[in-house]
Write a structure and sequence with these properties.
Length: about 525
């Protein structure tokens, strides 16, 4: 009879919890429910997606149960898991923390203990890096866990705003006042005859560097890598994406060197953390040797111990309370003069507990660097690789693919799709003048003045860019400047410069004073 009552109680709990996801339980209810005060909402912060929500949970848990909110970003077969928010009974929270301590898995989630009065507030704010190639949806799962099972109570979608294409501030400040702001004042149907493309020189030796940062979870004081322990399989997949092709396709790749650097957060003694970071770096080297056959003599392993520099930077970026006091202690006191003890004692230990939960976990990491050489590819191979591994192509190989895929027929059929290969090239070779000139050409043809502005701002002093600068000024309504640039371009691209000057002359004859007046209105 007791078992039947327990089963009915659990079923009643599930129904009430599911019904109460957005509202507090009815008066007198024996079971808890989430209630949002703000959110949930998602925002892009650069390449990271931030999830925020706050509210309260009302009601009390019974027995070995816990409630969890788990944000997941799902893209095809890939899932990016955010730290989860868990609500436990006091005894359940103690058990969870003890398990965390024993498994060294402090990055797994967050714990909030239900107050004995039956109310618990939550304020969630977490970010995760999301690759540009990931297009997916954000879900917030509500999960009930018992001693030996878990149940999905609900899964709600969180709207994700469109990711903005941002331009680094340094680019804007460099070109501010030098080029007109990228606002179209003149409409000119451009084709390849109008813009300058330059064939890059072949890359004699293609040497590349790949890096990855992983956060491996270890049993307490252990240094070996266990792929199936906690979340390690997902973390190790980042390394696998780099090393699987590079280490196995020896006809295409040759590994030159590799390095592993281990970091620790400041818990425990300085000596202990230094030794442990060195051992774990060595353990990662052993894993790479066993998994990919990397010769041990080509892999250096180094432990850096406690990452105080990373801690200071993370605290400076945070909105934690007592931030200035924490930074002052870090800047004033040496690690051997009681710095950590002062942090632990500050304001009754509250700032330190916050750092333990929010700031320390990302500091425990392993950084990997692989230097390798890659062979040259023929145009067909390059065409296949530009969408899969563009980092292995030379600028000249990307150019050949772009030339083969684009012409004036592409512009007529689908102007917006023209020359995207040049965009990839400038993303991987942002400091190369030819990459920027070619990317600006494709952007001008598409009418993407903002990208053209960025690329031309980087090369505005290069005489080879004069023709494209003339086209850009023309589209911005700066006719006198456009003519001056076309005249300058006669020395570097005489055929296109002459053609554009003639087209500009015809345009002025056709639109005359009416066009000039329209341009003046736009300027105002």
């Amino acid at each position: 009879m007791k078992k039947v009552l327990l089963l009915l109680s659990a079923l009643f709990f599930l129904r009430n919890a599911a019904d109460g996801l957005r509202a507090a339980p009815a008066a007198g209810s024996r079971y808890p429910a989430f209630r949002y005060v703000n959110g949930p909402k998602a925002e892009w912060r650069g390449d990271s997606l931030e999830v925020r929500f706050s509210g309260e949970v009302a009601g009390r848990l019974k027995g070995p149960m816990s409630l969890h909110l788990v944000p997941l970003y799902v893209s095809d077969g890939d899932t990016i898991r955010f730290p989860e928010l868990g609500y436990f009974t006091p005894s359940g929270a103690k058990y969870h923390r003890r398990r965390e301590a024993l498994s060294d898995s402090k990055t797994v989630g967050k714990v909030r203990i239900l107050y004995r009065g039956g109310h618990g507030d939550f304020d969630y704010r977490e970010s995760r890096a999301v690759p540009q190639s990931f297009a997916g949806e954000l879900q917030l799962q509500h999960i009930l866990r018992t001693c030996c099972d878990e149940h999905l109570l609900a899964s709600e979608a969180i709207a994700v705003p469109e990711r903005a294409v941002t331009v680094p501030d340094t680019v804007y400040t460099t070109v501010a006042g030098m080029l007109p702001f990228p606002v179209a004042a003149v409409s000119v149907p451009l084709f390849e005859t109008n813009v300058t493309f330059i064939r890059p020189k072949p890359e004699a030796v293609k040497e590349r560097t790949a890096t990855a940062t992983v956060r491996i979870t270890y049993p307490v004081n252990d240094w070996r890598v266990y792929p199936d322990f906690e979340n390690n399989r997902q973390e190790l997949s980042r390394i696998d994406k780099i090393l699987s092709p590079v280490a196995t396709d020896t006809a295409t790749y040759r590994i030159l060197s590799a390095s592993i650097t281990g970091y620790a957060s400041p818990e425990d003694t300085y000596k202990h953390n230094m030794v442990l970071s060195e051992q774990r770096a060595g353990g990662m080297r052993d894993y790479l040797h066993g998994r990919y056959g990397l010769p041990a003599e080509k892999v250096t392993a180094e432990g850096k111990g406690e990452d105080w520099e990373g801690l200071r930077e993370a605290v400076g970026r945070s909105d934690m309370k007592a931030k200035d006091e924490v930074l002052d202690i870090i800047d004033t006191y040496d690690i051997f003069d009681g710095r950590e003890k002062l942090l632990m004692d500050l304001r009754g230990g509250n700032p330190y507990r916050y750092m333990l939960e929010h700031i320390f976990p990302p500091l425990r990491r392993m950084e990997m660097r692989i230097d390798y050489r890659v062979r040259a590819f023929d145009p067909e191979e390059a065409g296949e690789l530009i969408g899969r591994r563009p980092q292995d192509l030379s600028l000249q190989e990307m150019y050949e693919v772009a030339q083969a895929e684009n012409d004036d027929r592409t512009i007529v059929r689908q102007r917006d799709a023209y020359g995207r290969e040049y965009d990839i090239a400038v993303r991987y070779f942002p400091d190369d003048d030819i990459a920027n000139i070619n990317a600006s050409s494709a952007a001008l043809v598409r009418g993407d003045l903002e990208l053209a502005w960025v690329c031309l701002g980087r090369v505005r002093e290069n005489p080879l860019a004069a023709n494209n600068l003339g086209v850009y000024h023309w589209l911005c309504g700066k006719i006198g400047e456009a003519e001056a640039y076309f005249e300058k371009a006669r020395a570097t691209d005489p055929q296109r410069a002459a053609y554009n000057l003639e087209q500009l002359r015809k345009w002025k004859e056709e639109f005359g004073d009416e066009a000039e007046a329209g341009i003046d209105n736009v300027s105002e």
